[in-house]
Amino acid sequence: MQSLKAFSIYTKRVLSVKDSYAVKANANALGLDDKMLVENAGMAISYALLRKHRRKRILFVCGGGGKGALGLATARHMLDSAADVNVSIAFLGHEENLHNESCKFNYRALSSIAEITDIDEDNIDTLREMVRAADVVVEAIIGLGLKGKLYGIMSHAIRVINASAKYVLSLDVPAGIDADTGTPNIASIKPTHVITVHKPKIGIEKSHLIQSTHVEKIGIPLSAELLAGPGDLMLATEPRLIDANKYSHGSVLVVGGSEKYRTAPVLSSIAASNALAALRVGTGYVTVMLPSGSTIPNNIEYKSILQRNFKRKALSEEDIPVISSIKHNVLAIGGGIEESAESYDIINTIVGLEKKAGHTIVADAAAIKAVVKSRNLMTNKLILTPHYGEFKAISGVDLSSASLNTRVNAAVNFAKDKGCVLVLKGNSTIITDGDLLKINNSSTPSLAVMGTGDVLTGIIAAYASMHKNPFESAVAGVYLHSKIADLLAIEKGNHLIATDVVEAIPSILRAYDYVVRQQ
After folding, report:
1. Which end of the chain has fewer surrounding CB within 10 Å, N or C?
2. CA angle 480–202–160, rounded 5-degree value
3. Whole-prediction pTM
4. d(CA 95, CA 64)
5. CA distance 296 to 284
6. CATH of domain 249-509
């Protein structure tokens, strides 16, 4: 693949907490584990401290999580880099109580070359004395992992640091500052300066407590943000509440099919249903509308899907009020509908009503060609899923043998011009909303078989129904779809059929199941 550097303008400038964890997960998948990322960050920050504060007495105050690991690694790199540095370390807690593996590793590595003073409620005065003796306090207590109110030793330590009037340098996000909103906690650090890693966090820009900051790059490759990965599944996965019902997490309506193509909408709807079964955070209610006389197969796994039928053997104006009456927040439309001027007009009427209702629309096959004929139907909640042939039909641009750079530029320009989300399907599928870009690389051609596109439509619709962000939902759906194919290809080679992909969804998504209790 050619260099991705030219596409960096299509990544997020600032990151939320979920964005940060997603980037880290994608970096992990590329081979950069947490230990390596902490090492890189510790080294980068230590050089920054040595450049500005080499002759000063520096105190590191570290918590027991990922940010504490970063503080411990930074202190170790400073001590390794220069013999004349004056570094002391206060650790909030005790080694035997550590659960974070990265923090545990860095605690032990640092303790082999320097003394670490454990601080708890009983010796908080020791911390006060250490702060008093320092010129610079490096705060590495807690950052992205902050949940709820800060109490106990972390709260006491923050108050001691704030009361000292020392130069306070916070790592990544100051302790007690919400990384998404910038809202201060019951106790929060008031830093002199912030060194944030990789990219700025949204809360840093919003916080009135933070006046000075800069970013240190830590070796996270651009591909961790541009290439779809497991972090994008995390980003699009929402927790299922313990007392949720089937209406709590979205509902999908799949409309499609004709006398000639009866299975397409069924494959889409089954994919949406199985996304629910695996995620436990997905679509709670799936309805499929089929041509008159068509039925869903009688297999047990199909039983949870509701079926409605067209008034006739093809979609007609008589079906429009029925579609509007069915409960859903995402419409997947187009699969299996035969192309004609009449069907295009009906699809456009339906999509117009969906847009007015504020629903997300996943347009496939015939619906793609229908909706682009009317700019009034364009919305950032419209997801178009063309392959190269369909893209040529709607844009006039043939990308079948084009370079990645040409394909990306064409896709971004199209999405920006239309104001929609575009999923340009291929071996390197391009997903863009005109501002952001993701590229999904598949290692197998096994998805080049009829029906797999309908499954993708259903997966994207399922994510969109519960996550609400159309771009992120599309990225997650595309990645899941290709990841399943890559794994199945090991077992089945190039002999997959669409239902193989459907049946394998839970095996991938089990790792992302989680349930939360209402507060």
Report:
1. C
2. 125
3. 0.88
4. 9
5. 18
6. 3.40.1190.20
Mean pLDDT score, 42-69: 94
Place of tokens 């570094």: 87
As given in the structure block, the two tokens for residue 426 are 């291929």
Domain edges within the chain: 11-225, 249-509
User: 145 to each of 63, 184, 444, how far by Cα in Å?
Assistant: 11, 14, 37
Q: Tell me the mean pLDDT in the region 286-312.
A: 68
DSSP string, 58-96: EEEEE-SSHHHHHHHHHHHHHHHH-TT-EEEEEEES-GG
pLDDT tens digits, residue range 15-27?
999 999 999 999 9
For domain 11-225, give its CATH number from 3.30.1300.10, 3.10.450.350, 3.60.15.10, 3.40.50.10260. Answer: 3.40.50.10260
Least confident of 134-138, 251-255, 407-411: 251-255
Strand 240-241 to strand 306-309: parallel, antiparallel, or no bridges (unpaired)?
Answer: unpaired
DSSP 3-state assignment of 8? Answer: helix
Count Cα neighbours of 246 within 13 Å in the Cβ-side half-sphere.
Answer: 11
DSSP 281: S
For 259, the token pair is: 């006398």
Q: How confident is the model at residue 280 (pLDDT cuts 50, 70, 90)?
A: very low
Determine contact, residues 136/172, Cβ cutoff 8 Å: no
The two structure tokens encoding residue 81: 């880099």
Helix 452-467 vs helix 470-492: angle between axes, to the nearest 10 degrees?
Answer: 140
Query: Pick from 235, 230, 195, 186: which is nearest to 216 by CA?
Result: 195
